[in-house]
Batch of 3 targets.
Target 1
Amino acid sequence: MKRRLFHATCLWVLSLTWMGCHAWAGLAETVLRVKPSVVLVGTFKTTESPRFQLRGAGFLVARGDLVVTNAHVLPADLDKPDAPTLVVQVRSGQGDWQMRSVTVLETDVLRDLTLLRMEGAPGPVLRIGDSRRVREGDYLAFMGFPIGGSLGFSHVTHRATVSTITSAALPSPSAGRLKEQAIRGLRNGTFDIFQLDATAYPGNSGGPLFDPDTGEVMGVMNMVLIKNTRESALSQPSGISYAIPSRYVQALVDRHR
């Protein structure tokens, strides 16, 4: 009896191990395809040091001149006369970073999404997948530049499992604990977000959450919704991150094709 139980346990462990390895089998090749489409988003000003200030990540879509990122990545003082220039940096075929000016096409404040138009030649794009296919327990990956100002501007990929699909704005226990963004979300209607079993840092905001086999974008990594409606993952990383489902990105892009 004990031997049969031991054999059954071993088969169960081997099965789980095979499933986990199979889920990530194609990730290395997918990362190579995704990297050229993931860009640095920040500001540039000759009088600042450093002149380029990283604010987050973004990725190219549609015709290769549109960039998706988080709304909170944008500086609040862009309209001021002495404000720095909003830019993205795209990796060239030779491996160096090329700076491009961008303009803001549209901002979805509720879902913390922004669509930018990039000047210059278009780059390789990522395909936006159907986030309605994502299920709890699915394996996904995300890419960005975590703490890029300190660690350097290299693409970094993390693996993640969709822990749950939950509401972006949950009622607080008392009115005094309601945050401005939570109030706005409750007024305008909540929407679902993906909770992931991985830690994202500044520099991941705006980066793609993608299918490890196909590279299709299933969501956009987000930091503000974590801070305002959940735990403060910026100061105390908890191993939990969130992403905005890609169906909201698709709707944003469709309005500017």
Note: The mean pLDDT is 82.
Target 2
Amino acid sequence: MINLQEQISLFKNVIGSQLKNKVECIAIGGSAMMLYGAKNATKDVDLVFLKEKELTAVKEILYNSGFNERKNIKGIFRKDEDAGKPVMMDGKDTRFDLFLNEVIGYKIHEKVIERIREVHEFGNFIVKTASPEDILMMKGCTERERDRDDAAELIRKFKIDWNIVINETAEQTKIGIAAFPILLYDFLTELRDNFKLDIPKNITKELLVIAEKRLGDLKKKDQLIKVTKYKT
């Protein structure tokens, strides 16, 4: 686990100071929540890169700074998800998960980038923060208990724009995971029931409508969808 100041030190003194050129990434998960002031510490530093060469540059710096790449992550992802696997760099006190263009099937596209809230500069390392809505939806693909706690805190702290959630779900269902609305429906329903959160019922109903439409479209094409969750 690391706190905000320790994360900033890694960004500035380890990565930013060693990068030869400007590198940009998007902070998600607990990393972004700490930058928002919505979380005190995180186990994993989750970053999304839009250029492979920039991800590789940060990976090499972490390796040279004492982090080791985790090679065997078969227990976390299915074989058909190779494209969405992060590069996992284990350190003494924390782990960096470096993603390229998508997070467990959640695709990073123009609208996601437009919703970025903050930009932080640490030398040559530029870290942008994903919107609370996008962080919430990414956590909907997971099965980790701490992600439910994080999602509950996001809903409590921020005024979630549920229209963004619905519109993005429809988009992700087309370009990412076909089962995304089902995963998010289960996730939000559990949050509402277990954490007593004010999640509008019309939102979860709309997620089912999106899911049923997508299932109908795939059935016409004689295709099936897979429901896969991320564990670590």
Note: The chain has nine helices and eleven strands.
Target 3
Amino acid sequence: MEFNLKRVLKALLLSTSEPISIKDIQRVVQRYHDERRPPEPGAAVSPPAEGASADPASVQEVIRDIIDQVPTLITATQIREAMEQLDAEFAGGGDVCRILQGPEGFRLVVAPAHADWVRLLRGEVRPQRLSPAALETLAIVAYRQPVTRADMEAIRGVSVESALQRLLELELAQVTGRADLPGRPLTYGTTDRFLDFTGLRSLGELPASDVLSPAQISEWIARATAPAGPTEGELGLAEPAEPPSAPGP
């Protein structure tokens, strides 16, 4: 049988609901060769079945021809390209399947257009959309992590207690540690489920923010958490006179 990488990948994806990494696929290829390596010359060969060819050399030649069709090493680039082509074929042909690549590998999923049917089969409730407050808080966590609750509230200008709790319940955010600040407040970051939720493979694929730089955001937070008091001029009071300069020699 002629080796077809896309067909092999499709078979592997169909065989499990767990993500399959590139290393997993490369290990499968290695095991294929290990198990099908023909016996060394001179090694004992099992007698052929009745009516089969009795020439062990011809049997080994057929095995070798089959094995030679499978590369001993399939690169990560080849696997990604084959996955992309396979997913494009699914989408172009109106298939119910799609290939999702997450931080742990590739996974075969149901196309969004058919998700409701699967939900009804499982008896699950319709998923709720994130509120604007939760989305804004999630964006702050994604771009500023590890970030404290005080920083989130300084950026949003309102309490984030309800929105943050919702993100924790949905496992889109998690506690990552404690900040080196007075009181040692908790810090928060995103999860692998956040990457699946957004369709990203890593945080490096987050869209670049060209509105405010990290330094500008930090300055904004500093001003919001420790605002400077009004000057006497802003209160309508006379500014203090500068002391006269000392006369020259």
Note: The domain at 132-225 is CATH 1.10.10.10 (Arc Repressor Mutant, subunit A).
